[in-house]
Amino acid sequence: MGRSPRVSPDRILAAAALEFAARGFAGARVDRIARRAHVNKAMLYYHFRSKQHLYRTLLRRMFTLAAARLQAIAESAASPADKVAGALAAMAAFIEEHAPFPRIMLREVAEGGVHLDRDTLTALAAVPRAFGAIVHQGVESGAFRRIDPMFAYFSMLAPIVFYLAGAPIRKEITHLHVAGFTSRPPADFVRHMQDAVRRSFARDRAHRPVS
Protein backbone atom coordinates (compact mmCIF):
# COMPACT_ATOMS: atom_id res chain seq x y z
CA MET A 1 0.00 0.00 0.00
CA GLY A 2 1.43 3.42 -1.00
CA ARG A 3 2.27 6.10 1.52
CA SER A 4 -0.07 9.09 1.80
CA PRO A 5 1.45 12.40 0.77
CA ARG A 6 2.78 14.35 3.74
CA VAL A 7 1.07 17.67 3.21
CA SER A 8 -1.21 19.09 5.88
CA PRO A 9 -4.73 19.86 4.65
CA ASP A 10 -4.60 22.82 7.06
CA ARG A 11 -2.00 24.50 4.87
CA ILE A 12 -4.22 24.15 1.85
CA LEU A 13 -7.26 25.42 3.76
CA ALA A 14 -5.34 28.48 4.97
CA ALA A 15 -4.32 29.29 1.39
CA ALA A 16 -7.86 28.70 0.17
CA ALA A 17 -9.26 31.10 2.76
CA LEU A 18 -7.10 33.92 1.37
CA GLU A 19 -8.05 33.14 -2.22
CA PHE A 20 -11.80 32.85 -1.57
CA ALA A 21 -11.77 36.04 0.52
CA ALA A 22 -10.01 37.97 -2.22
CA ARG A 23 -11.94 36.67 -5.24
CA GLY A 24 -15.07 34.86 -4.08
CA PHE A 25 -15.98 31.33 -5.06
CA ALA A 26 -16.39 31.99 -8.77
CA GLY A 27 -13.19 33.99 -9.11
CA ALA A 28 -10.99 31.70 -7.02
CA ARG A 29 -8.58 29.46 -8.91
CA VAL A 30 -7.26 26.14 -7.70
CA ASP A 31 -3.84 26.77 -9.25
CA ARG A 32 -3.45 29.98 -7.23
CA ILE A 33 -4.50 28.17 -4.04
CA ALA A 34 -1.95 25.45 -4.76
CA ARG A 35 0.80 28.05 -5.27
CA ARG A 36 -0.15 29.82 -2.03
CA ALA A 37 0.01 26.50 -0.20
CA HIS A 38 3.28 25.51 -1.93
CA VAL A 39 1.80 22.27 -3.23
CA ASN A 40 1.01 21.03 -6.71
CA LYS A 41 -2.57 20.72 -7.93
CA ALA A 42 -2.42 16.93 -7.78
CA MET A 43 -1.66 17.15 -4.05
CA LEU A 44 -4.52 19.59 -3.54
CA TYR A 45 -6.94 17.30 -5.32
CA TYR A 46 -5.63 14.37 -3.28
CA HIS A 47 -7.00 16.06 -0.15
CA PHE A 48 -9.98 17.86 -1.71
CA ARG A 49 -11.90 16.48 -4.65
CA SER A 50 -12.80 19.84 -6.18
CA LYS A 51 -12.85 23.57 -5.58
CA GLN A 52 -16.38 23.19 -4.28
CA HIS A 53 -15.34 20.47 -1.83
CA LEU A 54 -12.45 22.64 -0.64
CA TYR A 55 -14.72 25.66 -0.17
CA ARG A 56 -17.35 23.76 1.76
CA THR A 57 -14.77 22.01 3.92
CA LEU A 58 -13.28 25.40 4.82
CA LEU A 59 -16.65 26.85 5.80
CA ARG A 60 -17.69 23.80 7.78
CA ARG A 61 -14.46 23.93 9.74
CA MET A 62 -14.92 27.61 10.53
CA PHE A 63 -18.52 27.15 11.63
CA THR A 64 -17.60 24.14 13.76
CA LEU A 65 -14.78 25.99 15.51
CA ALA A 66 -16.95 29.05 16.17
CA ALA A 67 -19.82 26.94 17.52
CA ALA A 68 -17.46 25.02 19.81
CA ARG A 69 -16.30 28.26 21.44
CA LEU A 70 -19.86 29.38 22.08
CA GLN A 71 -20.89 25.95 23.35
CA ALA A 72 -18.06 25.99 25.88
CA ILE A 73 -19.29 29.35 27.16
CA ALA A 74 -22.90 28.11 27.30
CA GLU A 75 -21.82 25.12 29.39
CA SER A 76 -19.75 27.19 31.83
CA ALA A 77 -20.84 28.16 35.35
CA ALA A 78 -20.88 31.91 34.57
CA SER A 79 -24.00 34.02 34.90
CA PRO A 80 -26.12 34.52 31.76
CA ALA A 81 -24.99 38.15 31.49
CA ASP A 82 -21.34 37.14 31.74
CA LYS A 83 -21.90 34.37 29.20
CA VAL A 84 -23.29 36.85 26.70
CA ALA A 85 -20.36 39.19 27.28
CA GLY A 86 -18.00 36.24 26.86
CA ALA A 87 -19.76 35.15 23.68
CA LEU A 88 -19.35 38.61 22.16
CA ALA A 89 -15.66 38.68 23.03
CA ALA A 90 -15.19 35.14 21.73
CA MET A 91 -16.82 35.90 18.40
CA ALA A 92 -14.76 39.07 17.97
CA ALA A 93 -11.57 37.16 18.78
CA PHE A 94 -12.53 34.39 16.37
CA ILE A 95 -13.11 36.86 13.55
CA GLU A 96 -9.77 38.56 14.21
CA GLU A 97 -7.98 35.20 14.27
CA HIS A 98 -9.60 34.18 10.98
CA ALA A 99 -9.52 37.50 9.15
CA PRO A 100 -10.53 36.16 5.69
CA PHE A 101 -13.66 34.51 7.05
CA PRO A 102 -15.95 37.60 7.30
CA ARG A 103 -15.14 38.57 3.70
CA ILE A 104 -15.94 35.07 2.51
CA MET A 105 -19.27 35.09 4.33
CA LEU A 106 -20.22 38.59 3.21
CA ARG A 107 -19.66 37.48 -0.38
CA GLU A 108 -21.72 34.35 0.22
CA VAL A 109 -24.57 36.34 1.77
CA ALA A 110 -24.53 38.73 -1.20
CA GLU A 111 -24.86 35.73 -3.54
CA GLY A 112 -27.73 34.21 -1.59
CA GLY A 113 -25.82 31.26 -0.16
CA VAL A 114 -25.82 29.43 -3.49
CA HIS A 115 -22.65 27.49 -2.67
CA LEU A 116 -23.84 26.12 0.68
CA ASP A 117 -25.07 22.54 0.74
CA ARG A 118 -27.09 20.85 3.48
CA ASP A 119 -24.07 19.77 5.54
CA THR A 120 -22.53 23.24 5.40
CA LEU A 121 -25.81 24.89 6.37
CA THR A 122 -26.13 22.45 9.27
CA ALA A 123 -22.66 23.42 10.48
CA LEU A 124 -23.56 27.10 10.10
CA ALA A 125 -26.75 26.65 12.12
CA ALA A 126 -24.75 25.33 15.07
CA VAL A 127 -23.36 28.84 15.69
CA PRO A 128 -26.65 30.69 16.32
CA ARG A 129 -27.94 27.59 18.12
CA ALA A 130 -25.05 27.77 20.59
CA PHE A 131 -25.62 31.47 21.19
CA GLY A 132 -29.35 30.87 21.43
CA ALA A 133 -28.72 28.38 24.23
CA ILE A 134 -27.10 31.16 26.26
CA VAL A 135 -30.05 33.47 25.64
CA HIS A 136 -32.50 30.71 26.55
CA GLN A 137 -30.68 30.11 29.84
CA GLY A 138 -30.95 33.79 30.68
CA VAL A 139 -34.65 33.93 29.86
CA GLU A 140 -35.43 30.78 31.83
CA SER A 141 -33.50 31.98 34.87
CA GLY A 142 -35.29 35.33 34.82
CA ALA A 143 -32.11 37.29 34.12
CA PHE A 144 -33.21 38.28 30.61
CA ARG A 145 -36.46 39.57 29.26
CA ARG A 146 -38.32 37.42 26.74
CA ILE A 147 -36.29 37.72 23.57
CA ASP A 148 -36.07 35.63 20.42
CA PRO A 149 -32.68 33.84 20.48
CA MET A 150 -32.27 34.09 16.70
CA PHE A 151 -33.00 37.82 16.66
CA ALA A 152 -30.60 38.22 19.58
CA TYR A 153 -27.86 36.41 17.70
CA PHE A 154 -28.12 38.52 14.55
CA SER A 155 -28.47 41.71 16.60
CA MET A 156 -25.07 41.12 18.15
CA LEU A 157 -23.22 39.34 15.32
CA ALA A 158 -23.82 41.73 12.43
CA PRO A 159 -22.32 44.84 14.10
CA ILE A 160 -19.20 42.92 15.14
CA VAL A 161 -18.68 41.43 11.68
CA PHE A 162 -19.14 44.78 9.95
CA TYR A 163 -16.92 46.67 12.40
CA LEU A 164 -14.05 44.22 12.12
CA ALA A 165 -14.43 43.66 8.38
CA GLY A 166 -14.53 47.43 7.84
CA ALA A 167 -11.16 48.09 9.50
CA PRO A 168 -9.37 48.97 6.22
CA ILE A 169 -12.10 51.48 5.31
CA ARG A 170 -11.98 53.13 8.74
CA LYS A 171 -8.21 53.39 8.45
CA GLU A 172 -8.48 55.21 5.12
CA ILE A 173 -11.13 57.60 6.46
CA THR A 174 -8.94 58.35 9.47
CA HIS A 175 -6.08 59.26 7.12
CA LEU A 176 -8.36 61.80 5.45
CA HIS A 177 -8.66 63.60 8.80
CA VAL A 178 -12.42 63.86 8.56
CA ALA A 179 -13.62 66.05 11.42
CA GLY A 180 -14.93 64.05 14.35
CA PHE A 181 -13.89 60.65 12.99
CA THR A 182 -11.27 58.52 14.69
CA SER A 183 -10.72 54.81 14.24
CA ARG A 184 -11.18 52.99 17.55
CA PRO A 185 -9.66 49.59 18.34
CA PRO A 186 -11.85 46.47 18.18
CA ALA A 187 -11.64 45.98 21.96
CA ASP A 188 -13.42 49.31 22.49
CA PHE A 189 -16.21 48.30 20.14
CA VAL A 190 -16.59 44.92 21.82
CA ARG A 191 -16.97 46.63 25.21
CA HIS A 192 -19.55 48.96 23.69
CA MET A 193 -21.50 45.99 22.33
CA GLN A 194 -21.26 44.11 25.61
CA ASP A 195 -22.78 47.07 27.43
CA ALA A 196 -25.47 47.60 24.79
CA VAL A 197 -26.47 43.93 24.74
CA ARG A 198 -26.45 43.71 28.54
CA ARG A 199 -28.87 46.64 28.73
CA SER A 200 -31.01 45.32 25.88
CA PHE A 201 -31.37 41.83 27.34
CA ALA A 202 -31.98 42.90 30.94
CA ARG A 203 -35.33 41.83 32.35
CA ASP A 204 -36.24 45.29 33.66
CA ARG A 205 -36.17 46.53 30.07
CA ALA A 206 -39.58 45.05 29.32
CA HIS A 207 -41.38 46.60 26.37
CA ARG A 208 -44.10 49.03 27.29
CA PRO A 209 -46.95 50.18 25.08
CA VAL A 210 -46.27 53.43 23.28
CA SER A 211 -48.75 56.08 24.40
- Number of separate helices: 10
Intertermini distance: 78 Å
Main sheet summary: none
Please give the number of β-strands.
0
Measured as a percent range, the helix fraction is over 70%
Q: What's the pLDDT, averaged over the residues?
A: 90
Could you give the order of the helices and strands?
HHHHHHHHHH
- Rounded to an integer in angstroms, the radius of gyration calculated over CA atoms is 20 Å
Q: Which regions have little confidence, pLDDT < 50, spanning 5+ residues?
A: 205-211
Report on the architecture of this protein.
The chain is mostly helical and 211 residues long. It is 73% helix and 0% strand. α1 runs antiparallel to α2 (30-37), α5 (80-97) packs parallel to α8 and α7 packs across α8 (149-165). It is globular, with a radius of gyration of 20 Å. Mean pLDDT is 90; it is low at 205-211.
